[in-house]
Amino acid sequence: MTQGTQGMQPKISFQDVTRRFGDGESGFLALDRLNLDIADGEFVTVVGPSGCGKSTAMNIAAGLLDVTDGRVLVDGKGVAGPGPERGVIFQQYALFPWLTVRQNVEFGLRIKGMPAAERRRVSDHFIDLVGLKDFADALPKTLSGGMKQRCAIARAYAVNPTMLLMDEPFGALDALTRVNMQDQLLDTWSRERRTVIFITHDVDEAVYLANRVIVMASKPGRLHKIIPVDLPYPRTEAMRLSPEFAAIRNEVWHSVYHQKPQIEAKH
Amino acid sequence: MNGAATTVTDETETRSRSVADLPPLLINVVAFAIGIAIWWAITAAKLVVLPGPYEVLVRAGELIRNGQLFTDIFASLRRVLTGFALGVALAIPVGFLMGWYKVARALIEPYVQFFRMIPPLAVIPLAIVTMGIDEAPKIFVIFLASFLSCVVATYQGVISVDRTLINAARVLGARDGTIFARVVIPASVPFILVGVRIGLGSAWATVVAAELIAAQSGLGFRMQQAQLYYDLPTIFVSLITIGILGLLMDRLLQATERRLTQWQERAQ
Ligand SMILES: Nc1ncnc2c1ncn2[C@@H]1O[C@H](COP(=O)(O)OP(=O)(O)OP(=O)(O)O)[C@@H](O)[C@H]1O
Ligand SMILES: [Mg+2]
After folding, report:
1. Is the model's pLDDT at A6 over the cut of 80?
2. Distance of alpha carbon B189 from the chain centroid
């Protein structure tokens, strides 16, 4: 499995990444010296109590938020602003409501200046991939939550990113749709092997999807523990019910919900 | 803000759905008829010294036949549409500027807020002194009225564009110019249209009042003349025409608004 990062350049590397909100030293420390390497093609999930800086870390990786200190390297190069090699999927779908599914999927391609015929071919492919063929010309307001999220995924895939950053993408979905989306995501991932960072509140989901589960702690937001998931892919429903799965889930659960409180160091 | 628009949409939707939903329209018609009947009863009984419906209808016929009504409508509409078009044409870019650039906002906003506190009509004396008594002062006042109400709406629209949409565009590779054209503008359209509607409303209200004060033509001027001669039916015809025209323009804009913002999720 793609567990170790030794000897290979990590796909993305967080080095002492620190972020404060508010003024100077008195500001709120949302992320405290995060150090983390993620290998090319790896699928990591991030869990942790609310407010522990998961979204902050992801937005920094996406280039939507600046660091206060430290740096993020993607393929060995420092991140400065967003780039099409890092696809982002937001919890709130963030579809452009005035554009149809197809126009949404083609948004990034249009910016790239791809000719219309080719755009059409690419968007057809990804709309088909996420099963929205019959809704290609529908406006987002006519789609269900799961369909909106699938459209957002197709839009992110279309620009061919080498990495996907997903912030609680399935948070708003019902249990059944959610499980389907998980399987679909793993299916595409195992075929195309993009690096995925996936934030979730759902411990089950975190274990089911990941090579490694990153557990974070809050006040200040920081890395708490990294839990490897030594289960083979493809993951199956039977695996979900296996004792091995239960053991890992317990470990993750325990490290998320029984964190020792740490008093934030005041300066 | 678009509570009114939503209600109307719902009405039309239910109306076209089944015969059982007809009554609202029917009730509207009945209410209208009752209104006319009460008007007729009050005036026929000489409770007040006002012209009755019949008298007003006859006067309307006269004014239509001798063409005066159309001359007045034309004069008023021309003023409104010129001032309104100029006001909106300036308000939209200025509103975008204010919403997009903090410096522009800091520079312009105090003025907008200040002038919004002055009723446009209060500017008329100054406008007449500085611009003379022909079309210019009236058009200017209407321009001011529609500009002020539209600029605020546009600016509100730009600053309330969902951050996530802007971020979504950025991670797809969009730069500032593209974000502005492809995200900020479409996302602000509903706000701008609300502003345009409010702008047209205040422009229409302003033109009539402006004509009352200083004009040689127009619906307001006609009423002012009629007042001198105690010609109540003409006043009534003018008032009703003002109401109908205002309503027509508003409905026209509302229909445009609905077409342009079809993508919006509306409350049921
Ligand atoms: N723009 C901001 N200004 C001030 N404080 C912020 C800002 N964004 C985040 N924070 C603070 O930083 C902390 C971390 O926020 P973040 O959104 O990263 O948490 P999270 O782990 O994603 O939480 P959740 O699981 O609830 O989404 C929170 O305490 C939050 O209040
Ligand atoms: Mg979050």
Report:
1. no
2. 17
Report the atom number in ligand 1 closest to the C-alpha of A54.
Answer: 21
Query: Rounded to an integer, what distance in angstroms lies between the CA atom of residue B183 and that of residue A16?
Result: 35
**For residue A97, how far is the Cα from the chain centroid?**
23
A94 → closest Cβ in B165, B264, B265:
B165
- The token pair at A219 is 């006040």
With beta carbons less than 8 A apart as the criterion, state whether A105 and A127 touch.
yes
Encode pLDDT of A164-212 as tens digits: 999 999 888 888 888 988 998 999 898 888 999 999 999 999 999 999 9
Cβ separation of B265 and A87 shorter than 8 Å? no
Q: What is the pLDDT of residues B115-135, one digit of tens each?
A: 889 988 888 888 888 988 788
**Chain B residues near residue A84 by CB distance under 8 angstroms:** 171-173
Residue ranges for chain B with pLDDT beneath 50: 1-12, 14-15, 19, 268
DSSP string across B241-259: HHHHHHHHHHHHHHHHHHH
Are B144 and B126 in contact, with CB atoms under 8 Å apart?
no
Helix (H) or strand (E) holding B193: helix B185-213
How many CB atoms are located within 10 Å of the residue B22 CB?
A: 11
What is the separation of C-alpha B135 from the centre of its chain, rounded to a whole number of angstroms? 20
**Alpha helix (H) ranges present in A74-221?**
101-112, 116-129, 145-158, 175-192, 203-209
CA-CA distance, B200 to B81, in Å (whole number)?
9
ipTM here: 0.86
A246 to chain B, any CB pair closer than 8 A? The answer is: no
